[in-house]
Every structure is written in structure tokens, then in C-alpha cells.
Amino acid sequence: MTLAKNDLVKSVQKKAQLPNPRSTSVVESLFEIMKKTLENGERVLISGFGKFSVRDKDERRGRNPKTGESLMLKSRRVVKFAYSRILRDKVNTE
Question: What pTM did the predictor assign?
Fold first, then answer.
């Protein structure tokens, strides 16, 4: 099962007892704040959940898996997620 944005909206609506448009606005605002923070190269730390950060990847040699052709991959920025110990323990609890 996958948790979609709409599922988050419904959860916020139920737990916070907010109307659907307001719940949607809250979830969208949260994601916008996180995106802007990461775009600026800053970290997003959510206690008990984990940390999102931006990492620079250098240009590197790669290959096209379909043709096997060698090519250079451009440098880029990627989002990295490091989960917290609390989340790890909850996921691994049987």
C-alpha cells in the first residue's frame, strides 16, 4: 500500500477536525515549506521521523542500460533522507 497526498489530507482532516479545503491547504503548505527549504540547500529535520538534506553529486561516467553506450552524467543535486532511530525502531518492531 502507498500513502498518497490525498491520504495525508484525509488524516489531517480527521485528526485535526478541519474541513477538507483547510486540510488540503495545510498539507500543501507543509510541502511547499519543505521544498523551498531544500531548494535553498537547507536541511529539514522532523524529530522522531528523520532528516531531509540536499547533496551534490559530481559529474560521472554512466551507461545507457538499453544500448550499453557509455556517456557522461551531468552533476546534479539530490535529496537525501536519513531516518531517525525512533522511526527505525518502530519500523523494525514485530
Answer: 0.80
